[in-house]
Amino acid sequence: MCGKVWLVGAGPGDAGLITVKGKALLELADVVIYDALIQLELLVQIPEKTKKIHVGKRAGNHSATQEEINQIILEEALKGKKVVRLKGGDPFVFGRGGEELELLLEHNIPFEIVPGITSAVSVLAYAGIPVTHREFTSSFHVITGHTSKGTKKNVDYPSLAKLGGTLIFLMGISSMEEICNRLIQEGMPSDTPAAMLEQGTTAKQRKVISTLKNLKRDCDQIGAKTPAIIVVGQVCKLANQLEWVEKLPLGDVQVIVTREKTKASKLSKKLLEQGAHVIELPAIETASMEDDSNFQDAIKEIMEQKTVRWIVLTSPTGVEMFFSLLKKEKIDLRRFLSDTLRFAVSGTATAAALERYGIYADLMPKKFSGKELGRAFEMSVDRNEKLYLFRSELADEELPNYLMDRGFFCKEVPIYRTVSRMNLEWVESVWDGIEKQEIDYVAFTSASTVRGFVQAMGERDFSIVSAVCIGEKTAACAREYGMNVWISEEATMDSMVEMMIKMKQRLD
Ligand code: SAH
């Protein structure tokens, strides 16, 4: 059976700028063939099981030639695979999308095209430059600045200089001087507003707003490099006034979120709201215990008792695992619950998880910590009432020790394990991003996420990692590996985000 190819535009860089259709296709593809412009932020969203083929330039390696790329796409399709050919921006805007389809046509391979948001418009928007504006221009023109090789036609500067529209040069960074000089030669005033926009829509976007005469000089000062766009026209004047990315609290910040997949999105959304670019790279996974006998015994004991006894849950994961085990044992909730069975939780998140099962906790400390929960028991619970702690195998002994020291019967029942598990495909790209300071922070929400991250990264000098940690224990673990550690004031996602905002303000 012959496969199919989707030529998909990935958008200009910000992972949120891929289309809904493009994102859905990334999830169903067997193979994704991508090039250098695709950001890690988006790449990590491709399922782990999907085959990924990088055909762009990477440090040290040469990029595949166009013929090679065409061949790779064809081969995968002939194997019967669902192939997504992922290209930066829109696949047809200087993207050679057409060339890639020709070979498929010859072989009767079915294809679809999913347009993308082109950098030619969106990079301007992220720099506060509207591509058109009624007061200034009635057209915009997208031009390749890459005239020396590859293109057949020369740029028609005399016409461009007369158009009065916004001129957008892609691939023009190395011929910037020529572009500006030619436009001036052909009659454009040398003080015409002009801009250079580098790595637009990413956390590291930079811009230079200048004039035709001075653009090259001003760009040289900051060492502008590709990928970048040159914009010429009156609309560039609006860049300062309409600047918006720079005003976002975390607009230039890229963060790795190491939480478990199911939980990562909460932190990611909060970061996104503040403008941050998020790379979700879960470093841990919840796994069930190898055998459930501890759980079975404890449940049996609990159900046989008639006096008051407590089920103590200390994390939302604990709640989920507890109920999934009850289900696995086919225990009917009507038989299990009774008015002498009490529930205690360690904090609001756990309470909320429990409420989803229709159970409102009988005990919850004001502050989230093992000790506080212990204190709450100490203050209000009779020593005859038995306590059963259903939690992670790795949970520390603070709470049970505290309770037992105060004369409680307290039974620990491990019901899940947290195992280190990170997708190793991106390890080198992640480290590269950290070294180049394109990745600013790594967010750790537990010591196990630190361990998972370190395990995946292997032997490195972690002193270049800025770790934002949720609490002392997480921080202590990160420090052990030599990371630069910041601790959020409270053990909440909001507080972690606030910490990052504060760190950034300090840097600015
Ligand atoms: N098909 C792509 C363009 C491919 S040509 C699109 O529609 O966006 C590659 C050129 O696009 C680069 O040399 C640069 O000029 C421009 N470009 C792509 N992404 C960019 C970005 N994030 N910031 C600035 N320029 C970018």
From TrEMBL:
Its EC number is 2.1.1.107. Signal peptide: none annotated. CDD domains: HemD, SUMT. It is an enzyme of class 2 (transferase). Pfam families: HEM4, TP_methylase. Residues 4-215 form the Tetrapyrrole methylase domain. It comes from the Bacteria. Residues 266-498 form the Tetrapyrrole biosynthesis uroporphyrinogen III synthase domain. GO terms for biological process: methylation; siroheme biosynthetic process. Keywords: Methyltransferase, Porphyrin biosynthesis, S-adenosyl-L-methionine, Transferase. Gene3D superfamilies: 3.40.50.10090, Cobalt-precorrin-4 Transmethylase, Domain 1, Methyltransferase, Cobalt-precorrin-4 Transmethylase, Domain 2. One of its GO terms (molecular function) is uroporphyrinogen-III synthase activity. InterPro entries: 4pyrrol_Mease, 4pyrrol_Methylase_sf, 4pyrrol_syn_uPrphyn_synt_sf, 4pyrrol_synth_uPrphyn_synth, 4pyrrole_Mease_sub1, 4pyrrole_Mease_sub2, CobA/CysG_C, Siro_Cobalamin_biosynth. PROSITE patterns: SUMT_1 (PS00839), SUMT_2 (PS00840). Belongs to the precorrin methyltransferase family. This is uroporphyrinogen-III C-methyltransferase.
